[in-house]
Amino acid sequence: MNRAVFVTGCSSGIGQACAVRLSRAGFRVFAGIRCSPNSVDLPEDVTPVEVDVTSTESVAAASEVIAEALVGNPLWGVVNNAGISIAGPLEAIDLADVSKVLETNLLGPLRIVQTFLPMLRASRGRIVNIGSGEAFLATPLNGPYCMSKHAMEALSESLRLELASSGVFVSVVEPGQTQTAILEKAAGQFSEMEGRLDAARRDFYGPSIRARGAMSERTGMPPDRIAAAVERALSDSNPKPRYFVGLDVRGAALLGRFVPSRLRDLFFCKVLGFPGRALR
């Protein structure tokens, strides 16, 4: 039997690309989606599974569906891809929106791991988490997403150490800017954000918001490049802790690790066009 994997967030973007690529590579793919299976374009041999990663009950129900479909056969891997982004200046963003991001991007993957780990122990399989360059280099006006991806790195590090003796390996695939629904919506989010601010905050943040929106309009890489790294993380006999995809994410990791904070501030304020108020 082909190795079975469960991928979350398969309605579009990286998750959908993973489902397609892994299916072609011979994996038996269970594709986690929040919407109706009929509304998602997936290969015929991919099994859609409705799941809301923010709900313990929904994740448990999905695990039962997959266990029944496998009829006692092992689950080889889970790919924690589901994620959302809500942009805004941290002083003005609704805390309920911050909670949504953390519930989906951080607690969702942990919920998946806690539920599916017994099956993964049985197969000595793989956990693959989708990270971000913003885990290493936090960007202005996208704080909740950066917070969640910073924390995803810590979650993955702790899990990898805790599970080392079990044979279950944990990898993080680190994508650079990718053409996904999150990226496509970003420019509109920044424009709407500026309109929601009061006059004083609009005057303070307006130039930064417009500069950040322009950054989001840059074309990202195709999601299949990230799917290829996910396939390697699931297939390599000696998987890496991290798979970097794209020069921009490698640069972000280097900047975040080795460049002093003041120089990173200067990078954002000068090179990316953000006002330098913080440097005065």
Concise overview:
With 280 residues, this protein is of the alpha/beta class.
Verbal overview:
With 280 residues, the protein is an alpha/beta fold. α2 packs parallel to α3 and α5 runs antiparallel to α6. The longest helix is centred in the middle third of the chain and has 29 residues. It starts with a strand and ends in a 9-residue tail after the last helix. Strands 3-2-1-4-5-6-7 form a 7-stranded parallel beta sheet, sandwiched between helices. The radius of gyration is 19 Å and the shape is globular. It has 9 helices and 7 strands.
List keywords for this structure.
alpha/beta; globular; single chain; seven-stranded parallel sheet; 280 residues
SSE blueprint and pairings:
Elements: E1 4-7, H1 13-24, E2 28-33, E3 47-50, H2 56-70, E4 75-80, H3 95-123, E5 126-130, H4 143-162, E6 169-175, H5 181-196, H6 199-216, H7 223-235, E7 242-245, H8 247-258, H9 261-271
Parallel strand pairs: 1-2, 1-4, 2-3, 4-5, 5-6, 6-7
Taken from the alpha-carbon principal axes, the silhouette is: globular
Give the N-to-C terminal Cα separation.
Answer: 63 Å
Give a quick account of the main beta sheet: strands, pairing sense, barrel closure.
7 strands, parallel
How many beta-strand elements?
Answer: 7
Percent helix: 40-55%
For the CA atoms, what is the radius of gyration? Answer: 19 Å
What value does the average pLDDT take?
Answer: 89
Low-confidence stretches: none
Quaternary state reads: single chain
Instruction: Give the spatial strand order of the biggest sheet.
Output: 3-2-1-4-5-6-7
Q: Count of DSSP helices?
A: 9
**Amount of beta strand:** 5-15%
Helices and strands, in order, run as EHEEHEHEHEHHHEHH
The helix-and-strand class reads alpha/beta
